[in-house]
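ASSEMBLY PREDICTION REQUEST
Request ID: AP-0331
Submitted by: J.K., bench scientist
Number of chains: two
Total residues: 951
Priority: normal
Notes: Please return the full assembly, not individual chains.
Input sequences:
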Amino acid sequence: MRFAWLVVAIFAARFLATAIVYPQVDGDLSWQRWLGARILAGGAIPRALGSETFTAAGSPWLPQEWAFSLVASLARGGLPWALFAGAVALAAVAALGLAAAQGERRGASPRALVLCATLAGIALFNSFGVRVQVLAWLPMVAFLALLEVDGPWCYGAIAVAALWSNLHASAMLAPVLAALAALGSALDERGWTPRVRRSALVALGSLGAICLNPFGWQLAIYAIGLFASPFKALIGEWKVSDVDDFSFACGALPLLLLGALTGLRGERRFRDTLVLGAATWLLLGAARNIAVFGLVALPIVAASLSRAFPWFAPPSPAPPSRSDRIAAFALPAVALGLALVVASVLVREAPHDGGGELAGPAIQALARAPGEHRVFCADFAWCGRVVGLPHDRVFLDGRADPYPQAVWDDFAAIAFLRPEWRERLAARGVDTVVVGRGARLDQALERDARWHAAFGDKDYRLWVLAPSAPRSPRRSSFVPGLRSGADGEVVRGS
Amino acid sequence: MIGVGVGRDAGRPQTRERPELAASAVAWASALGLAVAVAFSFVTANPNLPHVALTLWLGRRLLGGAPADLLGRLGGVVAALVERAGGEPALALATAFAALAAFALIAVRASRVAGNVAGFAAAALAVLCSLDLLRPGGGMTNLAFAAALMLALDARTLLGAGLAALLAVVWCNAAPEGLLAAPLAAAWAFGSTLEGARGARLREAWLGAAGCALATLATPAGAAFPKLAYEALRLDRDLVALVPVHPVDVAPAAYRVGFTLVVLGALAFGARLRRAELPPLGFALLLALANGAFLPLLGAVAGPALACAARLPRAFCVALVSAAACAAVGVSLETDRANAGQPYELVAQLAADGTSHRLFCEPLEWCSVATAAAAPGLRPFMDGRVAEDPPALRKMQRAIGRVNAGWRAEVSRARIDTFLVTRNEALATLLGLDPHWRRIASDERALVFVRAGGTKR
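STATUS: Completed
Returned structure:
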């Protein structure tokens, strides 16, 4: 691990700096803060969408992110934000470190660990952010580590699964991974051995443990349902991984190739094959699973690489030499130095106008505008920032899952400018649109006299329906009063 | 069961069991079923596919005495000759023959090192990776070439090296995929070096690689072939953006299953793979990930390698072959529906209306249909031969097709006066909103717009 710590330290600097200093890049954090505040105010987790949306109020909702949201609502800025964002980054670093330590436990050499930890770290890049799924990486790695223990401690994995299910719905992977491990062990050991029995019991225990959350068994049903949800096609993170993804091309793919080309060896061959096979299936299914694959593959591939190539083989045990003793002190110092360099470069290059992302200026303009608005965002994640604004209700936002398919169909028709886009916009009573400048919908609204741009900058535009335009009977009382100033800033109408 | 050294030092079989008659019979029957399935899928839909229509048009042109274009298109000539001899039934038979030849070659290579029935299991894995090839059609010949090349290289003799080079020459002239012969042969030679091959065996492996590399120059395109063929393979992300080759688009049914099967096999049995197999397998894995259309090639390379390493039980092999045959039949039965919706009637209307059209298509492949119609008034802006168009043209195609900022200026610059576009695309909606464009025809999937006041022929 001594060399792998170098890698982990550099990734730690990168993750900490980007989490704390860089502006919010995930629209979900806004509605999650709103959710946390609602839970704190009402003392209960909401189970249905409310009046913050005008398309699906009353639709059942399973806010799996409730625990994360509670803390996020308390950490809106300053030191609390730094602590919160730092904790999320440290969870990712801990997951990487734990996976590397697991590789060492399996007999991986320092060289193999450095290579595989670097690749796994890169695999985390695309998904990393102050996000709930990042927090879920640590329990996943801890679960797999405990599952490998040959002894009663392996039952600790059941407790980890329970904790995991209170953080994220990906906890439903716990019983699946344990069952595959049990099956693989049965193939490896050709019988019902103590190891097979323990893994099978962990699988059964995890099945119960993932129900120990405020939603009970419904969380697992919800997670399984996500696999078949058609709306995933409209979400970038759910697209199939391909070589255009940096984390895939430079992180997960080399790990996968190394694993496939060296083949898995040792007494846990089928067990590792099935667990890594499941991670491969997830990897090929959606880009959001690239990080999951990296963390699962790190220890398995590092150990396999160490056995396959002499150059990667562990050094023979020998009494520590003088250079070893020097390295014991020098390497942590080098790691710390490199981490500080990475962090300082990232902090110096951090953009200072944090509102530019996620249509921030257009949404700020919307918040300042008088009257009530029924808002359509061309990227539904932007509308996460509108949730909770007084007088504004959204068509669709980053909560995504609870919205009915009909809403998604209408969203796709409007955002992608399909033939019936105008009728659907009218039928839903949309009177405000946030869109990227030059995007398809922006070009179409430009050619429609009933819409006028109330705000515009180089990246975004806010369109509002003209007062004289015919409106849907379902429309709420919109009080237009916006006009565009010379500098693109919203000016209140007289 | 297999009686062959399959470890790192393994090479040739030492003993071979007599194949079980029943198991072989099931395997052969399934393989025949596959061939029938391929033929059926070709008869029902493949001749209507834009790239098949374009290939046949190119072949007919060459047979008519037109000068060969840069990529040779021997494949088109052969297809046109077959069509001339027996029409669509002959084309279907030829496709079935190519499929059968490909899977038989894969099976033969695997049988040589892993036993007869395991050889069929290797072919079955290749079939599972090729299921979507039954849908787009036309690629079976490439699979047969790849399988034959690997078989020739695996012979590890001077004759094998010469045969590999000869195959590469024919393959390069038949299709741009021939370019893959050189890196596959080089990967094999590198693997042989890793394996510790010495003397004549090593020399022959590298001779084969050199022969395949030289073969890429023996086409009408000469030294330009590698660059043109590389672009035609659509590994370049710029081209990928223009002509989708995303695994989901290319191989919706089989991509994930086929790929995961190969990876699982490699993880479980990779430690027993012959080292010579590792570099070609790695190359094929990378190719398939860069462009999902190469998943069948991965199956052809990985099938024999994994069958050799896995020492699969006979019953499992037979089950795998049968499953592959069933899956292939299922895919081919679905082919007709999947390939419906090519705008042949609209293109015929445009060709017959007596007006000259500078035509833009979205999706791009619809313009291949227009090119294949061979109507003098139809001048597509670009068609499926994207590799032969300059980058500036591709950039314009992308900007207009995706209605990027400034697309209207690009339309004027390219002097486009007719659009053939999918109903569901933003381009169709924006043209409908624009008074300068007039909708003149439509069907259930496509719309045709012409510039108001288009030029008469």
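REVIEWER COMMENTS: Confidence is low (pLDDT under 50) at residues 1-17, 246-252 of chain B.
SIGN-OFF: pending second reviewer
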